[in-house]
Structures are given as C-alpha cells and as structure tokens.
C-alpha cells in the first residue's frame, strides 16, 4: 500500500472514530464546549476534536518516519562502509582484472572504404 493511500486511510479512520466516539462521549458526560462566551454546537465541538486528532496522527507519523528513516540511514551507512572496505582491500586485484580485460577484449574492426 502506498504511503499516500495509507495516510488518507489513517486520516479517514481517525475522523470517523472521533466523530462516533465524540458524539457519544459528549452525550454521556453531558459536556458543553464554550469558545469565549458562546456555546459550541456538538458537531462543531467534534470537528475541533477531530482536527486535533488528525494533527496528533500526523505528528505520530512524522515521529515513526523519523525513527525508521534513521534506521534505514544507519543500514545504508553500514552497507556503504562494507563496500568501501572491500574496494579498499581488493583494489589491486580489481585494477589487474580491468587491465587484463582491456588487453584481451575483442577490439572492433575498423572498416575502410
């Protein structure tokens, strides 16, 4: 599953869960949300909590990608260092093999008209 598709599904699931749980929680606890001195409608209160939930999901996604990005970077560093070590140890053999290949390869025939 692609990253963008997973992100969209996560946002939709968060919005749905927040709406379902938010409306029942507001009714169960008999909570009224005020902004300033005005009473906020239940659906609008749920929307505010949904936006906060989506922001928290994005923050969690950024943290997860940072951790896995660091792990991938560390693995690439280890692989790169192994390749450089192998190149540093075996460069005389690789140079000799390249010289032998250049000497014995089939050279293209020059066509004269």
Q: What ranges have pLDDT less than 50 throughout 5 or more consecutive residues?
A: none
Our measurement of the CA-to-CA distance between the termini, rounded to an integer number of angstroms, reads: 60 Å
Number of domains: 1
Helix content: over 70%
User: Structural class per helix/strand content?
Assistant: mainly alpha
As laid out across the biggest beta sheet, the strand order is 1-2
Average pLDDT metric: 78
Shape label: rod-shaped
Cα-atom radius of gyration: 31 Å
The beta-strand count equals 2
Element-level helix/strand string: HEEH
Beta-strand proportion: 5-15%
Largest sheet: 2 strands, antiparallel
Helix run count: 2
Would you give an account of this structure?
With 113 residues, the chain is mainly alpha-helical. It has one domain (3-104). 80% of the residues lie in helices and 5% in strands. The chain has helices spanning 3-29, 42-104, and strands at residues 33-35, 38-40. Strands 1-2 form a two-stranded antiparallel ribbon. Strand 1 and strand 2 (38-40) form a beta hairpin. Helix 1 packs antiparallel against helix 2 (42-104). The radius of gyration is 31 Å and the shape is rod-shaped. The two termini are 60 Å apart. The mean pLDDT is 78.
